[in-house]
Write a structure and sequence with these properties.
This protein has helices at 17-29, 42-50, 78-87, 105-113, 126-143, and strands at residues 9-13, 35-39, 66-69, 96-100, 118-121. By secondary structure, it is of the alpha/beta class.
Length: 156
């Protein structure tokens, strides 16, 4: 991955510690150099994005390049997170990629109705997860032009 991705932040919202670790390892194996912020539930993700709760000291003007969002989350599920992200002017343009184990058609449709930019089923095989991480990095951190990035400082 190109060095331009170093200053790009990924927000990973995943409640399963094994899946969280798998994703972090896959991104490392795929040479993704971006900072990855992890949140273990929907409430924490919203606190991070809106600089509330335990993230009250965070500069809310600094947004991640992209959010990877699981749907089945404790406290606040992924659908509600996506809904709140799209309703708020500060985050409505944030690219959101749903990364889930769900193969339910209703989850796919609802995710797009709520404004997801992409819906991906989690790879279960580690080599497939590395392949996903490489493709994700190439597209979302390399090729994609994000409206969030324009005029917004990056987090160190």
């Amino acid at each position: 991955m190109n060095t331009k991705t170093i200053d790009k932040v990924i927000l990973l919202v995943e409640d399963n510690p094994d899946d969280q670790e798998l994703a972090l390892l896959a991104f490392k194996e795929a040479n993704i150099t971006s900072k990855i912020i992890t949140c273990s539930d929907g409430e924490e993700a919203l606190d991070y994005l809106f600089a509330t709760g335990m993230y009250a000291d965070r500069d809310a003007r600094i947004m991640p390049e992209v959010m990877l969002l699981d749907l089945k989350l404790p406290k606040v599920d992924g659908f509600e997170v996506l809904k709140r992200v799209r309703e708020d002017p500060r985050t409505k343009l944030l690219p959101v990629v749903v990364l889930t184990t769900s193969s339910e058609q209703k989850d796919l449709v609802e995710s797009y109705q709520l404004g997801t930019n992409s819906y991906i089923r989690k790879p279960v095989d580690f080599s497939k997860f590395i392949e996903f991480a490489q493709q994700f990095g190439s597209y979302w951190l390399g090729l994609n032009e994000s409206p969030i990035r324009r005029g917004v400082r990056r987090e160190n």
